[in-house]
Amino acid sequence: MLARLIRQASAWLGSALFAALLLSSALLSPAAHAGNQKEEAMADSVRLALERAIRDGRPPKPVFRDANAQARYQQWFDAMSSRLKRRLPDNQVRTEFLESAWYEATRAGLDPGLVLGLIQVESAYRKYAVSIVGARGYMQVMPFWTKVIGDSNRRALFDMQTNLRYGCSILRMYIDMEGGNLYLALGRYNGSRGRPEYPNAVLAAWKNWDFKAASTAIALN
Known about the structure:
Elements: H1 2-28, H2 44-55, H3 67-84, H4 91-107, H5 112-123, H6 144-148, H7 160-177, H8 182-190, H9 197-209
Helix pairs in contact: 2-7, 3-4, 4-7, 5-9, 7-8, 8-9
């Protein structure tokens, strides 16, 4: 009887210890999912286009062609704001984030829902997330990009609009490089081209943020 109690206690302790180790591992794990984006050999025309996109100083405020377009954007904004409230509880921060995310995504010819899904996977909406390989911010941009197409200011990658602009511009470039193949482009963005885990994760997350009512009928300034 005593031996059985000892075995049961040992088994329980082992399970409790295992659970504690799992919790500890989760708490100490990196805050970001990013892989190791690689510096790409690119044509001068592509580099110049990226540089111009990064330097564009216009504020991320959408301009609408008509009242219907504005109404569609507002429907998108209201729906996304409600979904994002738990992750970004501050109303002003959430508003600025969604305005910038929509603007930069649309500007780069990307679905805003795709960008929101990518951010969910990459950083879980942590503005100051840093991966184990040094990728930074919401879209987990590798610092070398600031030297390749920016002003070498790595700290700027923690600025919301700057990070979103880099991330969207880089993803657009990868989609073009892959001939429109989003699956391969996402793998390249994560530094894991050819492997299914990351593209599948982003495509699944995209479904959480997809909203067809916000269409490309909304124009940018």
